[in-house]
Amino acid sequence: MPDTPLASAQPVESLVIPARLDGRDGTNRGDARNSQLAARNDLDALRAWLANYADTQTTFDSYRKEAERLLLWAVVQSGKPLSSLTHEDLLLFRVFLANPQPEHRWVSASGGKYPRGDARWRPFNGPLSPASQRQALVILNGMFTWLVDAGYLRGNPMALLRQRGKPAAPRVTRYLSVSLWDEVKGFVAQLPQDTAAQQAYSARCRWLTTLFYLQGMRLSEVAAGRMGDFSRRLGADGLEQWWLRIVGKGAKERIVPASPELIAELIRYRKANGLPPLPGRADDTPLVIPFRGKRRCMSRSAVHDAIRSVFGNAADWLRTRGPEFADRAGELDRASAHWLRHTSGSHQADGGVDLRTVRDNLGHVSLNTTSLYLHEEEDRRYRETVKRHRMNWEARPASEPGSAQSDRPAQTATAEPDDH
Q: What are the recorded GO MF terms, alphabetically (predicted)?
Protein backbone atom coordinates (compact mmCIF):
# COMPACT_ATOMS: atom_id res chain seq x y z
CA MET A 1 0.00 0.00 0.00
CA PRO A 2 1.27 3.54 -0.67
CA ASP A 3 2.70 5.34 2.34
CA THR A 4 -0.03 7.99 2.61
CA PRO A 5 -2.12 9.35 5.48
CA LEU A 6 -5.55 7.86 6.06
CA ALA A 7 -7.20 10.48 3.91
CA SER A 8 -10.49 8.61 3.56
CA ALA A 9 -10.86 8.18 7.31
CA GLN A 10 -14.44 7.13 8.00
CA PRO A 11 -16.10 5.25 10.86
CA VAL A 12 -17.01 1.63 10.14
CA GLU A 13 -20.61 2.76 9.66
CA SER A 14 -19.70 4.61 6.43
CA LEU A 15 -16.26 3.35 5.39
CA VAL A 16 -15.89 2.18 1.79
CA ILE A 17 -13.29 -0.50 0.96
CA PRO A 18 -12.24 -1.68 -2.52
CA ALA A 19 -13.84 -4.97 -3.55
CA ARG A 20 -10.51 -6.83 -3.62
CA LEU A 21 -9.99 -5.99 0.05
CA ASP A 22 -13.54 -6.07 1.41
CA GLY A 23 -13.40 -9.74 2.44
CA ARG A 24 -15.95 -11.21 0.04
CA ASP A 25 -13.27 -13.72 -0.91
CA GLY A 26 -11.40 -13.79 2.40
CA THR A 27 -9.31 -16.93 2.93
CA ASN A 28 -10.81 -17.43 6.42
CA ARG A 29 -14.43 -17.08 5.33
CA GLY A 30 -16.88 -19.68 6.54
CA ASP A 31 -19.36 -21.55 4.38
CA ALA A 32 -21.95 -18.98 3.32
CA ARG A 33 -24.64 -21.67 3.46
CA ASN A 34 -24.08 -22.05 7.20
CA SER A 35 -23.68 -18.37 8.04
CA GLN A 36 -26.27 -16.80 10.32
CA LEU A 37 -25.41 -13.32 9.03
CA ALA A 38 -26.68 -11.57 5.95
CA ALA A 39 -23.24 -9.91 5.71
CA ARG A 40 -21.29 -10.67 2.56
CA ASN A 41 -18.20 -8.59 3.37
CA ASP A 42 -16.08 -7.71 6.39
CA LEU A 43 -17.55 -4.25 6.93
CA ASP A 44 -21.10 -5.55 7.09
CA ALA A 45 -19.98 -8.32 9.46
CA LEU A 46 -18.35 -5.78 11.79
CA ARG A 47 -21.46 -3.62 11.69
CA ALA A 48 -23.56 -6.61 12.68
CA TRP A 49 -21.24 -7.33 15.62
CA LEU A 50 -21.23 -3.71 16.76
CA ALA A 51 -25.03 -3.55 16.62
CA ASN A 52 -25.08 -5.73 19.73
CA TYR A 53 -23.63 -2.81 21.72
CA ALA A 54 -25.60 0.07 20.23
CA ASP A 55 -27.53 0.59 23.47
CA THR A 56 -24.39 1.40 25.50
CA GLN A 57 -22.56 4.33 23.92
CA THR A 58 -19.33 4.01 25.91
CA THR A 59 -18.93 0.31 25.11
CA PHE A 60 -19.96 0.83 21.49
CA ASP A 61 -17.38 3.58 20.99
CA SER A 62 -14.62 1.52 22.59
CA TYR A 63 -15.40 -1.61 20.53
CA ARG A 64 -15.78 0.34 17.30
CA LYS A 65 -12.39 2.01 17.85
CA GLU A 66 -10.57 -1.31 18.22
CA ALA A 67 -12.35 -2.97 15.28
CA GLU A 68 -11.68 0.07 13.14
CA ARG A 69 -7.96 0.08 13.98
CA LEU A 70 -7.58 -3.58 13.05
CA LEU A 71 -9.59 -3.19 9.86
CA LEU A 72 -7.57 -0.16 8.73
CA TRP A 73 -4.30 -1.88 9.63
CA ALA A 74 -5.29 -4.98 7.62
CA VAL A 75 -6.31 -3.01 4.54
CA VAL A 76 -3.80 -0.13 4.59
CA GLN A 77 -0.72 -1.71 6.19
CA SER A 78 -1.03 -5.39 5.26
CA GLY A 79 -2.96 -5.04 2.01
CA LYS A 80 -5.35 -7.87 2.80
CA PRO A 81 -8.96 -8.25 4.00
CA LEU A 82 -9.66 -8.63 7.70
CA SER A 83 -11.17 -12.05 6.93
CA SER A 84 -7.81 -13.17 5.50
CA LEU A 85 -5.73 -12.33 8.56
CA THR A 86 -3.65 -15.18 9.97
CA HIS A 87 -2.02 -15.92 13.30
CA GLU A 88 1.24 -14.48 11.97
CA ASP A 89 -0.53 -11.27 10.92
CA LEU A 90 -1.94 -10.79 14.40
CA LEU A 91 1.49 -11.27 15.95
CA LEU A 92 2.60 -8.30 13.84
CA PHE A 93 -0.51 -6.34 14.82
CA ARG A 94 0.24 -6.88 18.50
CA VAL A 95 3.71 -5.36 17.97
CA PHE A 96 2.10 -2.54 15.96
CA LEU A 97 -0.19 -1.56 18.87
CA ALA A 98 2.82 -0.91 21.06
CA ASN A 99 4.38 1.39 18.43
CA PRO A 100 2.17 2.33 15.43
CA GLN A 101 4.48 2.94 12.47
CA PRO A 102 4.86 4.80 10.21
CA GLU A 103 3.97 7.43 12.77
CA HIS A 104 2.84 10.13 10.34
CA ARG A 105 0.21 7.75 8.96
CA TRP A 106 -1.17 6.39 12.20
CA VAL A 107 -0.48 8.83 15.04
CA SER A 108 -1.91 12.31 15.61
CA ALA A 109 0.97 14.76 15.26
CA SER A 110 0.11 16.68 18.42
CA GLY A 111 -1.44 13.84 20.37
CA GLY A 112 -4.77 15.68 20.09
CA LYS A 113 -8.18 14.39 19.14
CA TYR A 114 -9.67 15.61 15.88
CA PRO A 115 -12.92 14.85 14.00
CA ARG A 116 -12.54 12.41 11.13
CA GLY A 117 -13.12 15.12 8.56
CA ASP A 118 -10.00 16.91 9.79
CA ALA A 119 -6.82 16.14 7.85
CA ARG A 120 -4.98 15.76 11.19
CA TRP A 121 -7.14 12.86 12.35
CA ARG A 122 -5.33 9.55 12.96
CA PRO A 123 -6.47 6.28 14.57
CA PHE A 124 -3.96 6.68 17.43
CA ASN A 125 -2.89 9.51 19.71
CA GLY A 126 0.32 7.62 20.51
CA PRO A 127 1.58 4.13 21.41
CA LEU A 128 -0.84 2.16 23.58
CA SER A 129 0.07 1.36 27.16
CA PRO A 130 0.39 -2.35 28.09
CA ALA A 131 -3.05 -2.19 29.73
CA SER A 132 -4.60 -0.64 26.61
CA GLN A 133 -2.92 -3.24 24.41
CA ARG A 134 -4.42 -6.04 26.51
CA GLN A 135 -7.81 -4.35 26.38
CA ALA A 136 -7.65 -4.09 22.58
CA LEU A 137 -6.75 -7.76 22.16
CA VAL A 138 -9.50 -8.90 24.54
CA ILE A 139 -12.09 -6.91 22.58
CA LEU A 140 -10.85 -8.20 19.22
CA ASN A 141 -10.72 -11.78 20.45
CA GLY A 142 -14.37 -11.44 21.44
CA MET A 143 -15.16 -10.03 18.00
CA PHE A 144 -13.45 -12.90 16.18
CA THR A 145 -15.18 -15.47 18.42
CA TRP A 146 -18.55 -13.93 17.62
CA LEU A 147 -17.84 -13.96 13.86
CA VAL A 148 -16.87 -17.64 14.08
CA ASP A 149 -20.01 -18.48 16.08
CA ALA A 150 -22.08 -16.66 13.47
CA GLY A 151 -20.53 -18.77 10.72
CA TYR A 152 -18.96 -15.79 8.96
CA LEU A 153 -15.37 -16.98 9.70
CA ARG A 154 -14.00 -20.51 9.79
CA GLY A 155 -11.67 -19.91 12.73
CA ASN A 156 -10.40 -17.35 15.21
CA PRO A 157 -6.72 -16.56 14.45
CA MET A 158 -6.46 -14.52 17.64
CA ALA A 159 -7.22 -17.56 19.79
CA LEU A 160 -3.74 -18.85 18.91
CA LEU A 161 -1.98 -15.86 20.45
CA ARG A 162 -0.24 -16.66 23.70
CA GLN A 163 -1.95 -14.62 26.36
CA ARG A 164 0.62 -12.89 28.49
CA GLY A 165 -0.19 -13.11 32.14
CA LYS A 166 -1.91 -10.05 33.48
CA PRO A 167 0.12 -8.59 36.33
CA ALA A 168 -1.47 -8.13 39.70
CA ALA A 169 -3.44 -4.93 39.83
CA PRO A 170 -1.35 -2.18 41.43
CA ARG A 171 -2.67 0.47 43.73
CA VAL A 172 -4.36 3.32 41.90
CA THR A 173 -1.74 5.99 41.23
CA ARG A 174 -3.62 8.45 39.01
CA TYR A 175 -5.22 10.43 41.77
CA LEU A 176 -4.60 13.67 43.63
CA SER A 177 -3.18 13.63 47.14
CA VAL A 178 -5.10 15.56 49.77
CA SER A 179 -2.57 18.41 49.66
CA LEU A 180 -2.66 18.66 45.84
CA TRP A 181 -6.45 18.49 45.89
CA ASP A 182 -6.39 21.42 48.33
CA GLU A 183 -4.34 23.36 45.77
CA VAL A 184 -7.00 22.73 43.11
CA LYS A 185 -9.72 23.96 45.47
CA GLY A 186 -7.60 26.99 46.31
CA PHE A 187 -7.29 27.84 42.61
CA VAL A 188 -11.03 27.51 42.00
CA ALA A 189 -11.87 29.59 45.09
CA GLN A 190 -9.74 32.53 43.91
CA LEU A 191 -11.07 32.70 40.34
CA PRO A 192 -12.04 36.28 39.40
CA GLN A 193 -15.74 37.10 39.06
CA ASP A 194 -15.65 40.65 37.72
CA THR A 195 -17.45 39.93 34.44
CA ALA A 196 -20.39 37.73 33.49
CA ALA A 197 -18.05 35.38 31.60
CA GLN A 198 -15.76 35.07 34.61
CA GLN A 199 -18.71 34.38 36.89
CA ALA A 200 -19.96 31.63 34.56
CA TYR A 201 -16.51 30.04 34.37
CA SER A 202 -16.02 30.20 38.13
CA ALA A 203 -19.45 28.66 38.78
CA ARG A 204 -18.80 25.80 36.37
CA CYS A 205 -15.32 25.06 37.77
CA ARG A 206 -16.65 24.92 41.31
CA TRP A 207 -19.61 22.72 40.36
CA LEU A 208 -17.57 20.35 38.18
CA THR A 209 -14.92 19.70 40.82
CA THR A 210 -17.58 19.30 43.52
CA LEU A 211 -19.70 16.89 41.48
CA PHE A 212 -16.82 14.67 40.35
CA TYR A 213 -15.22 14.57 43.79
CA LEU A 214 -18.25 14.09 46.06
CA GLN A 215 -20.06 11.63 43.78
CA GLY A 216 -17.07 9.80 42.26
CA MET A 217 -18.72 9.82 38.86
CA ARG A 218 -17.32 8.67 35.54
CA LEU A 219 -16.93 11.16 32.71
CA SER A 220 -19.76 9.57 30.71
CA GLU A 221 -22.03 9.64 33.77
CA VAL A 222 -21.52 13.36 34.31
CA ALA A 223 -21.97 14.14 30.60
CA ALA A 224 -25.27 12.23 30.34
CA GLY A 225 -26.71 13.22 33.74
CA ARG A 226 -29.60 15.61 34.25
CA MET A 227 -30.79 17.70 37.19
CA GLY A 228 -33.97 15.64 37.43
CA ASP A 229 -31.82 12.67 38.49
CA PHE A 230 -31.69 14.24 41.95
CA SER A 231 -34.50 13.12 44.26
CA ARG A 232 -35.33 13.39 47.95
CA ARG A 233 -37.06 11.24 50.49
CA LEU A 234 -37.44 10.93 54.23
CA GLY A 235 -35.08 8.65 56.10
CA ALA A 236 -36.08 6.37 58.99
CA ASP A 237 -35.23 9.21 61.37
CA GLY A 238 -37.70 11.48 59.64
CA LEU A 239 -34.99 13.70 58.19
CA GLU A 240 -34.75 14.63 54.52
CA GLN A 241 -32.27 12.74 52.33
CA TRP A 242 -31.13 13.64 48.82
CA TRP A 243 -29.93 11.01 46.34
CA LEU A 244 -28.54 11.11 42.81
CA ARG A 245 -29.53 8.45 40.28
CA ILE A 246 -26.57 7.54 38.03
CA VAL A 247 -26.60 5.33 34.93
CA GLY A 248 -23.19 3.68 34.70
CA LYS A 249 -21.41 1.03 32.65
CA GLY A 250 -23.67 -1.46 30.92
CA ALA A 251 -26.67 0.82 31.59
CA LYS A 252 -26.56 -0.25 35.24
CA GLU A 253 -28.26 2.17 37.58
CA ARG A 254 -27.13 3.08 41.07
CA ILE A 255 -28.20 5.76 43.51
CA VAL A 256 -25.57 7.67 45.43
CA PRO A 257 -26.16 9.78 48.54
CA ALA A 258 -26.15 13.50 47.80
CA SER A 259 -24.81 15.21 50.90
CA PRO A 260 -26.17 18.54 52.20
CA GLU A 261 -22.85 20.01 51.03
CA LEU A 262 -23.49 18.82 47.47
CA ILE A 263 -27.08 20.10 47.50
CA ALA A 264 -25.85 23.50 48.71
CA GLU A 265 -23.43 23.59 45.76
CA LEU A 266 -26.23 22.47 43.41
CA ILE A 267 -28.37 25.38 44.59
CA ARG A 268 -25.44 27.77 44.14
CA TYR A 269 -24.78 26.50 40.58
CA ARG A 270 -28.44 26.64 39.57
CA LYS A 271 -28.83 30.19 40.86
CA ALA A 272 -25.72 31.22 38.90
CA ASN A 273 -27.49 29.93 35.78
CA GLY A 274 -30.82 31.61 36.49
CA LEU A 275 -32.62 28.43 37.58
CA PRO A 276 -34.88 27.79 40.60
CA PRO A 277 -32.86 26.61 43.63
CA LEU A 278 -33.87 22.95 43.45
CA PRO A 279 -34.75 20.68 40.51
CA GLY A 280 -37.94 18.69 40.13
CA ARG A 281 -38.12 15.13 38.87
CA ALA A 282 -39.03 16.32 35.36
CA ASP A 283 -36.12 18.79 35.16
CA ASP A 284 -34.11 17.80 32.07
CA THR A 285 -31.44 20.48 32.58
CA PRO A 286 -27.99 18.85 32.09
CA LEU A 287 -25.86 18.30 35.16
CA VAL A 288 -23.26 20.50 33.45
CA ILE A 289 -24.82 23.39 31.55
CA PRO A 290 -23.25 24.59 28.27
CA PHE A 291 -22.13 28.22 28.21
CA ARG A 292 -23.96 28.85 24.93
CA GLY A 293 -26.74 27.39 22.85
CA LYS A 294 -29.52 25.06 23.88
CA ARG A 295 -29.39 23.47 27.30
CA ARG A 296 -28.65 19.98 26.16
CA CYS A 297 -26.12 17.55 27.57
CA MET A 298 -22.53 18.28 26.65
CA SER A 299 -20.47 15.61 24.92
CA ARG A 300 -18.03 13.55 26.94
CA SER A 301 -15.14 15.23 25.14
CA ALA A 302 -16.52 18.68 26.04
CA VAL A 303 -16.80 17.76 29.73
CA HIS A 304 -13.33 16.20 29.54
CA ASP A 305 -11.95 19.45 28.10
CA ALA A 306 -13.73 21.46 30.80
CA ILE A 307 -12.15 19.57 33.69
CA ARG A 308 -8.77 19.50 31.92
CA SER A 309 -9.05 23.29 31.70
CA VAL A 310 -9.46 23.45 35.48
CA PHE A 311 -6.36 21.32 36.05
CA GLY A 312 -4.30 23.09 33.39
CA ASN A 313 -5.13 26.56 34.70
CA ALA A 314 -4.52 25.42 38.27
CA ALA A 315 -1.10 24.17 37.17
CA ASP A 316 -0.28 27.55 35.61
CA TRP A 317 -1.45 29.27 38.79
CA LEU A 318 0.85 27.08 40.87
CA ARG A 319 3.84 27.91 38.67
CA THR A 320 3.33 31.63 39.32
CA ARG A 321 3.92 30.94 43.02
CA GLY A 322 7.52 29.89 42.49
CA PRO A 323 9.80 27.17 41.08
CA GLU A 324 9.24 24.99 44.15
CA PHE A 325 5.72 24.33 42.83
CA ALA A 326 6.90 23.02 39.43
CA ASP A 327 6.56 19.33 40.29
CA ARG A 328 3.08 19.79 41.69
CA ALA A 329 2.07 21.77 38.62
CA GLY A 330 3.41 19.00 36.39
CA GLU A 331 1.25 16.48 38.22
CA LEU A 332 -1.84 18.58 37.56
CA ASP A 333 -0.92 18.86 33.87
CA ARG A 334 -1.28 15.07 33.68
CA ALA A 335 -4.60 14.91 35.52
CA SER A 336 -7.95 14.21 33.85
CA ALA A 337 -11.57 13.69 34.80
CA HIS A 338 -10.90 10.06 35.71
CA TRP A 339 -8.27 11.20 38.20
CA LEU A 340 -11.07 12.90 40.09
CA ARG A 341 -13.01 9.65 40.29
CA HIS A 342 -9.88 7.93 41.63
CA THR A 343 -9.33 10.85 43.99
CA SER A 344 -12.86 10.49 45.32
CA GLY A 345 -12.47 6.76 45.90
CA SER A 346 -9.02 7.12 47.45
CA HIS A 347 -10.01 9.87 49.86
CA GLN A 348 -13.14 7.99 50.91
CA ALA A 349 -11.27 4.72 51.46
CA ASP A 350 -8.34 6.33 53.28
CA GLY A 351 -10.74 8.50 55.27
CA GLY A 352 -12.34 5.50 56.91
CA VAL A 353 -15.48 5.12 54.79
CA ASP A 354 -16.49 1.44 54.77
CA LEU A 355 -15.21 -0.19 51.56
CA ARG A 356 -18.66 -1.60 50.85
CA THR A 357 -20.04 1.93 50.89
CA VAL A 358 -17.27 3.15 48.57
CA ARG A 359 -17.91 0.17 46.27
CA ASP A 360 -21.62 0.96 45.98
CA ASN A 361 -21.06 4.70 45.58
CA LEU A 362 -18.60 4.20 42.73
CA GLY A 363 -20.55 1.39 41.11
CA HIS A 364 -17.84 -1.27 41.42
CA VAL A 365 -18.80 -4.91 41.06
CA SER A 366 -16.18 -6.21 43.46
CA LEU A 367 -14.52 -5.08 46.66
CA ASN A 368 -11.24 -6.16 45.07
CA THR A 369 -11.50 -3.17 42.75
CA THR A 370 -12.40 -0.79 45.56
CA SER A 371 -9.51 -1.98 47.72
CA LEU A 372 -7.08 -0.57 45.13
CA TYR A 373 -7.94 2.87 46.52
CA LEU A 374 -6.49 2.10 49.96
CA HIS A 375 -3.35 4.24 49.99
CA GLU A 376 -3.17 4.95 53.71
CA GLU A 377 -2.31 1.29 54.30
CA GLU A 378 0.73 1.62 52.04
CA ASP A 379 1.68 4.98 53.57
CA ARG A 380 1.65 3.37 57.00
CA ARG A 381 3.75 0.47 55.72
CA TYR A 382 6.25 2.95 54.26
CA ARG A 383 6.54 4.93 57.49
CA GLU A 384 6.96 1.75 59.57
CA THR A 385 9.64 0.32 57.26
CA VAL A 386 11.65 3.54 57.09
CA LYS A 387 11.49 3.99 60.84
CA ARG A 388 12.38 0.47 61.96
CA HIS A 389 14.40 -1.15 59.15
CA ARG A 390 17.71 0.70 58.91
CA MET A 391 21.37 0.20 58.04
CA ASN A 392 22.65 2.66 60.66
CA TRP A 393 25.95 3.34 58.90
CA GLU A 394 26.48 6.31 61.18
CA ALA A 395 26.42 4.18 64.35
CA ARG A 396 29.86 3.61 65.92
CA PRO A 397 31.41 0.15 65.44
CA ALA A 398 30.81 -2.38 68.20
CA SER A 399 34.54 -2.38 69.11
CA GLU A 400 34.67 1.39 69.60
CA PRO A 401 34.89 2.40 73.26
CA GLY A 402 31.58 3.63 74.57
CA SER A 403 29.62 1.80 71.92
CA ALA A 404 26.46 0.11 73.11
CA GLN A 405 27.72 -2.98 71.31
CA SER A 406 31.27 -3.01 72.77
CA ASP A 407 30.57 -5.34 75.70
CA ARG A 408 28.89 -7.99 73.60
CA PRO A 409 30.87 -11.15 72.69
CA ALA A 410 31.91 -11.35 69.08
CA GLN A 411 29.75 -13.63 66.98
CA THR A 412 31.38 -16.46 65.09
CA ALA A 413 30.92 -16.19 61.37
CA THR A 414 29.21 -19.11 59.71
CA ALA A 415 30.06 -20.62 56.38
CA GLU A 416 26.40 -21.13 55.49
CA PRO A 417 24.43 -18.24 54.02
CA ASP A 418 21.23 -17.19 55.70
CA ASP A 419 18.48 -18.40 53.37
CA HIS A 420 15.51 -16.90 55.16
A: DNA binding
